[in-house]
Amino acid sequence: MKEFELINRYFTGRGIARRDVDLGIGDDCALVRVPESCQLAVTTDTLVEGVHFFADISPRALGHRALAVNLSDLAAMGAEPAWVSLGLTLPSIDAQWLEEFTDGMHEIAEYYNVQIVGGDTTQGPLTITVCAKGIVPQGKALTRSGAKNGDWIYVTGPLGDSGLAIEARKQNWSIAEEHLENANKRFHFPSPRVAAGQVLRGIATSAIDISDGLLADLSHILKQSGVGAVIHADKVPTSAALNSLKNDDIRLQLALAYGDDYELLFTVSDDNKSILEAKLQQYGVEPVCIGQVVNNDGKLELLYHNQTMPLPNIGFEHFS
C-alpha cells in the first residue's frame, strides 16, 4: 500500500459529512464555510511515541487520544468543534494498525460531529499531528486573561488519574486491578469537556484545559490575568483510584502537578457561581470549587486543610 492508497482506504468517504464542508479530502486544501458572526478557533497538537504515549498503546486508543486532546483545547475556548486535519508519520504501513487507529479517530470525530477534511502522510518515526478547527460566536471565546479579584476557581472533574496510570507502570506500583483499569481508561480515552466549554461562554471569566498539570495551567491564567490565587489542595477532586494510594505526598503531586487530565479549569464571578453550577449539572458535570482569585499579581498560595504547604514541582514542559 502506498500513500494515496492509504488515504483512500482509511480516510476518504469515512466519517460524517458536514454541510459546511464544500471540499474535503482529495485536493490541495479543504474548503469550509465559517458561519456569519463567528470566529474560527484553531489548535494544533503533536503526539510523539515515547514522549506522549507508550509504544504498546492500542492503536484505537491512540486514534481517540490524538483527537481528544485537540478537542479539549477547543472546549477551553468555548468553541464548537467542526473540522480536523491530520498529519500522520508512520515507520511503515501496517493495515491492521491503521484500521484500528482510524476506527478510534473516526469514532470520537463522529461523536462530536467533526469531519476530517485533509492532512498529510509521511514515513518516519511514529508521530501524530492534529490541527482542529472550531466555531465560536464573535467576541464570546473564553480566554486565559479575564480572571478578576474575587472570582472562584473551579475544575470540571477529578485530577491525577493519568499520572497514576503512567507512574504505576513506570514504578511498578501495586494497585488494585479495578483502579488501574480506570486510571488507564482516563489516560488512553480522555473525554474532552466540549459541552461544558460552550456552557461556560458568557459565564466564566477565564478558562484553560488541564494538560500540563493543575498548578502549571492555573499559572497561565494568573499571569495573563495579572492576578494571584489561593488553592485548597484538599478540595481538589480525585477518584477512588487515586485515593487508593496511601502516600498523601504522591497523591497530591499527581493531582496538582502531573497533567494529562483534560478537565477544564475556569474562573467565575460570585454573581454567576450558582447559575454556572446549575447549568453544568444539566450536562452531567459536577464542577468543584477549589479556590479563589486574589489580587496580588501572580502569587499562588497553596493550602492543605487551611495550612500553607509548599508548591510541588509544577507541571510538564518540553525541553526542561
From TrEMBL:
Binding site for Mg(2+) 4: 28, 43, 73
PurM-like C-terminal domain span: 149-297
More details: Reaction mechanism of ThiL seems to utilize a direct, inline transfer of the gamma-phosphate of ATP to TMP rather than a phosphorylated enzyme intermediate.
Key words, A-Z: ATP-binding, Kinase, Magnesium, Metal-binding, Nucleotide-binding, Thiamine biosynthesis, Transferase
Family recorded in the similarity comment: Belongs to the thiamine-monophosphate kinase family.
Organism: Pseudoalteromonas holothuriae
UniProt KW Secreted keyword: no
InterPro entries: PurM-like_C_dom, PurM-like_C_sf, PurM-like_N, PurM-like_N_sf, ThiL-like
EC number of this enzyme: 2.7.4.16
Enzyme class: transferase
This protein's name: Thiamine-monophosphate kinase
Reactions this protein catalyses: thiamine phosphate + ATP = thiamine diphosphate + ADP
GO biological process, one term: thiamine biosynthetic process
Binding site for substrate: 52, 260, 316
Residues annotated to bind Mg(2+) 2: 45, 73
